[in-house]
Design brief:
The structure holds two protein chains of two kinds.
Chain A: H1 7-10, H2 16-26, H3 37-52, H4 56-78, H5 87-103, H6 108-130, H7 135-155, H8 157-160, E1 172-175, E2 180-183, H9 189-212, H10 214-224, H11 226-231, H12 236-262, H13 270-284, H14 290-309, H15 313-327, H16 331-351
Helix pairs in contact in A: 2-10, 3-9, 3-14, 4-9, 4-12, 4-13, 4-14, 5-6, 5-12, 6-12, 9-10, 9-12, 10-12, 13-14, 13-16, 14-15, 14-16
Chain B: H1 2-32, H2 39-57, H3 61-83, H4 91-113, E1 129-130, E2 138-139, H5 140-162, H6 164-174, H7 176-181, H8 186-212, H9 218-233, H10 238-258, H11 266-277
Helix pairs in contact in B: 1-5, 1-8, 1-9, 1-10, 2-3, 2-4, 2-8, 2-9, 3-8, 5-6, 5-8, 6-8, 9-10, 9-11
Classes of the chains: A mainly alpha, B mainly alpha.
Amino acid sequence: MTDVTPTGTRDAPVADAAAAVTLARATGAAPARWTWGQLGLLVVLAVVVLFTVPNPSLAIGMLIFGLWAAGLNLLVGYGGLVSFGHYLPFAWGGYAAGLVLKNVTTSAWVALFVATASMAILSALIGAICLRRTEVYFSMLTLAFAQLGFFIALQWNTVTGGDDGLSGIPVSTLELGFTTIELNGLRDPLTFFIVTTVIVLLTFAALILFTESPMGRVLQAIRESEERARGCGYNTRLVQLVTFVVAGAVAGLAGGLFAMLNNFVGLQAYWLLSGVVLIMVILGGRSSLFGPFLGAVVYLLLESTLSRYTDSWQFFVGAIFVVCVLLFPQGLWGLVTTTVPRALRRTRRATA
Amino acid sequence: MDQLLSQLVLGVVSGALLVLLALGLNLIFGLLEFINFAHGALYMVGAYLTSYLAVATGTIWLALLVVPVAMALIGAGLERTLIRPMYGRDQVDALLLTFGLTYILIEGVRYVAGSGGRRVPAPEILAFQVNLGLGRPVPAYLLFVVLAVALVVGGLWLFLQKTNVGLIVRAGIRDHIMIRALGVRFDRYRTLVFAIGIAVAGIAGVLTGPITGVFPEMGADILILAFVVVVVGGMGSFWGAVVAGLLIGVLVSVTTLYASVYAGIVPFVLMILVMTFRPRGLLGAT
């Protein structure tokens, strides 16, 4: 929590490619990030959500959407690859978990594993095509894949339930060796919340590990300059593909959790939810993993509050989004991490 | 056979409308270097303006004149206020900004005009059928749409190839730093090109109205198809967008006839094939 020094300045460049990142951070192009402190922040946020959000399924949804957004930020913030189709892995995870729970077993382990692993494989295939071109091409291709998935889910109603969605997903059970917990989001939301928190924290830790690994560093170097990274001898496409797979698998896991929470998978307009998760990332801030998580919590709070007062709440969502991109491209969390240390320094100087 | 032919005509019509959107996207991408995500929503705004004008005057003729001008002004205003601060920043920021704009436009129209659609009367003078020797006669309005699109495409091409302004635009697409160094006030050309792109989307909105009516979400699906057209045709390729637009229009339309379940998927399958075997697009240069 006290770790406010930019990581780049603390541990000197570990590889040639990391130098680009360090340079970008030192020049202020990429703001300082708290690395492992983020995990502590996440625990604090989860506790705050638990005690302040009155609607339990909204509180659990915040954690799930936060994980989804944090995974997307691997692509958007760390890789500079804006995916406009990140609803696809989320929906896939939901359908996969739902179908396993419905037809095979009610074990949460199996359902979540299938959701995550199958999405990882699918991501590798989709990523291989989407990453043939980067930047704008990538955005449009991911969008097109999401649209393709939407059509398939809509038409294949013997499996997906089509427009009506996949309903009647049974309550899942979680075997822990010594005991078996029933994960019922409606009757026992606290257990569900705690289990979700644990899963989210573990996944989040894995994401931090990934961003701090040499590969994560190369990913950021590619964002700064792909040519330079390739010049350093890195296989840039492979790094991006692995990131795409990780982000997809995390979204699949989040989708599976969401399906278990609602016992239902609904088919929503592809671009609406892909957009929502992107808004969460931008609102929270692209420069960290915790930012998008905060963005998801704030977004869902805004949505549930605004939709109580007006039907046109999406208008305000769009307006907030535009204002964020125009004025605070670093997002809410970026704003905190850049202004708070500066303000602290100023007060320290004033008192000294 | 009759059915196939009339389905082909419908395909050409929907493809022609796609071409208009894709050309605007392509031109804006070429000079302003970002993908205008709000293109579909602006097309929808143009269609709604048409709907109000057409109901007031009884026909779309006035709208066909007024809406492109109005959309060009809206486009120029947007470029000057919201998009200009995005230059020099990450390409992605402009994409995200226009994406947020989409929400505002769709929800704004929903607030003003309601969630339900509106009808646009087709011009009465074109309310007859033409026998093209295809067996079944074709509504004259559809032929008018194809003709109008052909005129717009031809006009755009002549504008880009034969005028001095078009020359500067083409040069700017190649290398805008050089153009600036030569003393051209490049900012004005960016505004101009954005306005033209939006005006062309507005024309597509006017022409679509009498065929399908207008509704707030009409821009979302066609925008994604227009993206596919741009990718399949080749980013930045003028004739690539025209060819790919017509191809996708016809393919979707013919698939609807024989296997309607797959109609929604066909453009994406085509796009995946193109990206796998020819990543620069059908007529793309690089």
